[in-house]
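Dear H.,

Thanks for agreeing to be a second pair of eyes. The structure we're designing against is below in token form, covering all 435 positions.
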């Protein structure tokens, strides 16, 4: 007994990826004959709750596994740390022969879940053990336990979700082919708790290779994006209900606004980026156009009238000196024109900064940056050219210094402005509640 206890699996390491056994300590796996003579050994658990069957399964010792199961098959479903059974450990190490032996002796063990709600199939997919995935799929098909293919973990992910996320084409094809034809289009569109289908995960987490083939296979199997899946076919969370249903249920403007607010786990980042690109482009276009045609237009002629003492003050105002191409508003109201230049420049420079960030990693990005720099200097030149002499200096300072510093100022002011907004909103809610 003492000799065996010194080799109990005390080194079942709390490794976040494997929780595996140290191969150098596998000498504790002894012959089946001795185990039968001293069956008490199989009841000994280490501090992590793992039994000798866990150790033998992780080490791939099929004969030892057979011997222990011959003593008592209930050890097959004994759970250790994190709810892992011997089948879970064998799956994580890709011990196919042990997997077959365990399932053959206790078919119900394929249903056992870890504390994260993961079955042996989930773990096989996560650890990229393709052979183990194929063995488990064959066994559950043979034992008529197809429902295990659709089982979800605590996050609502099926094995297909995980295979798509891991970009494992072979595993994905095995899982899709195992689903019966009559229910395939339904099951491949299963949604997790974030309202994402397997196809959503593929699109949201792109890789450099293999995505196209996986995408085509999923489409061929009837896969759809989460937003396109009908509520009659797929389980929907409240956040992914259709707009029509939500609008009918919304009794106030506030609830409607809340529904259309961007949700991190519901809306695709690629779609959000595309929307931001469109908005930033529209702002840049509108502000650039405003710099060319300011409010009130520009003078079409030049006039430097002689100042006469006989002229009334009203006529003197009307006959102010001006030069063709300068802003009419700036000639008569320098303060208003300066404010216009100030806010227009902020909008233009921030929109260019957004475009620069959103196009990181794009092809031909250097050429795109050249275009944006040309637009930037064109805007500044236009604004200073149409500015009348009395406000020209202010416009030059705004379009040169402020425009260059605006993106940095926005980052510095973002947190204080958000805090101020939250404070004002809370005060407004208190006032409304009092009313």
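And this is the sequence the design step returned. I haven't edited it by hand at all.
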């Amino acid at each position: 007994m003492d000799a065996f206890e010194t080799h109990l699996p005390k080194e079942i390491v709390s490794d976040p990826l494997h929780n595996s056994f140290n191969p150098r300590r596998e000498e504790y796996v002894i012959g089946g004959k001795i185990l039968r003579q001293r069956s008490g050994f199989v009841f000994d658990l280490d501090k992590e709750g793992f039994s000798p069957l866990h150790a033998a399964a992780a080490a791939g010792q099929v004969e030892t596994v057979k011997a222990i199961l011959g003593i008592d098959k209930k050890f097959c479903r004994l759970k250790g740390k994190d709810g892992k059974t011997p089948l879970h450990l064998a799956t994580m190490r890709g011990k196919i022969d042990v997997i077959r032996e365990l399932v053959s002796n206790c078919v119900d063990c394929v249903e056992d879940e870890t504390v994260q709600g993961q079955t042996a199939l989930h773990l096989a997919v996560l650890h990229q053990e393709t052979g183990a995935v194929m063995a488990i799929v064959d066994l559950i098909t043979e034992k008529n336990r197809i429902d295990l293919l659709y089982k979800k973990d605590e996050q609502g992910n099926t094995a297909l979700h995980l295979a798509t996320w891991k970009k494992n084409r072979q595993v994905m094809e095995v899982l899709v082919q195992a689903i019966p034809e009559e229910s395939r289009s339904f099951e491949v569109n299963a949604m997790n708790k974030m309202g994402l289908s397997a196809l959503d995960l593929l699109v949201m987490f792109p890789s450099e290779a293999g995505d196209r083939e996986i995408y085509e296979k999923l489409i061929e199997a009837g896969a759809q994006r989460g937003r396109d899946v009908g509520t009659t076919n797929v389980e929907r969370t409240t956040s992914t209900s259709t707009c029509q249903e939500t609008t009918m249920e919304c009794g106030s403007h506030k609830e409607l606004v809340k529904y259309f607010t961007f949700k991190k786990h519901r809306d695709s980042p690629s779609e959000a980026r595309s929307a931001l690109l469109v908005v930033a482009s529209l702002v840049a276009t509108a502000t650039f156009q405003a710099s060319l045609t300011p409010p009130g237009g520009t003078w079409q002629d030049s006039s430097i009238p002689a100042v006469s003492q006989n002229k009334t003050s009203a006529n003197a105002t009307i006959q102010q000196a001006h030069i063709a191409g300068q802003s009419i508003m700036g000639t008569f109201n320098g303060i208003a024109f300066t404010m216009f230049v100030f806010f227009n420049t902020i909008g233009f420079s921030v929109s260019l900064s957004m475009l620069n960030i959103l196009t990181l990693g794009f092809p031909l990005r250097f050429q795109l940056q050249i275009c944006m720099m040309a637009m930037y200097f064109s805007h500044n030149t236009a604004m200073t050219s149409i500015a009348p002499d009395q406000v020209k200096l202010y416009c030059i300072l705004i379009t040169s210094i402020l425009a260059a510093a605006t993106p940095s100022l926005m980052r510095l002011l973002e947190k204080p402005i958000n805090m101020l907004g939250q404070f004002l909103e809370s005060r407004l809610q208190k006032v409304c509640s009092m009313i």
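Two observations from my side: Residues 269-305+313-434 form one domain. The radius of gyration is 35 Å.

Warmly,
E.
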